[in-house]
Amino acid sequence: MSGGVDSAVAAARAVDAGHDVVGVHLALNRNPGTLRTGSRGCCTIEDSMDARRASTLLGIPFYVWDFSERFQADVMDDFVAEYAAGRTPNPCMRCNEKIKFAALLEKALALGFDAVATGHYANIVTVTGADGTSHRELHRAADWAKDQSYVLGVLTTEQLAHAMFPLGATPSKAQVRAEAAARGLTVAAKPDSHDICFIPDGDTRGFLAGRVGAADGPILDRSGRVLGTHSGAAAFTVGQRKGLNVGFPTDDGRPRFVLEVRPVSNEVIVGPREALAVPPWPDPGSAGQENRRPMPQRRSPARCRCAPTPTRWRRARPCAMANSSSRSTSRSWASRRGRPRWSMSARGCSASARSIEPSVGCRFIPRLLA
Q1: Of these residues, 197, 304, 306, 349, which one is catalytic?
Q2: At the topology level of CATH, where does 5-203+297-366 sit?
Q3: CA separation, residue 341 to residues 61, 109, 162, 336 (Å)
Q4: Domain 214-276: which CATH number of 1.20.1250.20, 1.10.10.10, 2.40.128.630, 2.30.30.280
Q5: Which of 221, 233, 264, 334 could pair with 344 in a Cys bridge, judged by C-beta atoms 3.0 to 4.6 Å apart?
Q6: Could you state, in order of their start, the residue ranges of all structural domains in the chain?
Q7: Is position 197 annotated as part of the catalytic site?
Q8: Catalytic residue among 95, 306, 319, 362
Q9: Nearest-5° angle of CA 168, CA 12, CA 181?
Q10: Which element (helix H / strand E) includes 138?
Q11: Residue-wise pLDDT tens digits, 287-344
């Protein structure tokens, strides 16, 4: 349980469904802050106390599990390494992949639980094929504005088999808050956490400067002409428009965007929006196109097949197009095997971040969905 409204309502719904729920708060920060500042950060001591109060109101046991070492190695260190390589990572996606549905799921199963369910706004649908075999698909949430399926696209078939998302069919976040208020939960009006959980002040540039470095370098156009300077290439993201510090206006008066980040030479390449255009999906029958890596279409619905598992994912937008307006929150529970069903409500970091490139081994297949 995160200490937020979504995890509290998710746990309450589990209780209503007849599960014996166990609330769990994930301690992910080695030096957690005492208090939150509005919507800044998460995983503070205040959040854990909010989770405990919600558990007490619901009449369920409550525990704190320490995954700070795993979080440091699998999420924070990966975050820095990706920026150092010139890529913009999505820590929420990595947290789901490595913490909530790996470390947490492993511990839950080892303790005899059947599943870990989070309060992400997403749906899991079991589909039966013509041959009688069934598989589980990840679908977008009912509320597209809150849909978080893109940060769950890294889950494997086995992980999906042990996952549940109880808030996916909820029409809106306002309804979740109203339900929390009706239940008497004190977190009904608590602000959502908007920033990367381990950068609560929102200063990603400053966080990276102390870990990757912040040496001055040139900002170039595609012809190699120097247009300006920057104080660290790692602070830029492909597609970025603001904060470029370019002193020369374009010939046509149109804005420039970051096209490429070159960490080795510490260069940032900028150009027109058209240079960011995504090439169309190649014809499967075209010669020489079999191994071409497809890129996701912006704002296009997509199905993602994540190799090597055959699981099919269907969502409103590909995970590679996550942006800073998306909110990632997580709440969970699990049910015990071979005994009356137990449930556990758990939560890791809550953050928002941009992701430009899909994860390794993930192929995005744009297609219109009915």
Answers
A1: 197
A2: Rossmann fold (3.40.50)
A3: 14, 13, 14, 5
A4: 2.30.30.280
A5: 334
A6: 5-203+297-366, 214-276
A7: yes
A8: 95
A9: 90
A10: strand 134-140
A11: 444 444 444 443 333 333 333 333 333 333 333 333 333 333 333 333 333 333 333 3
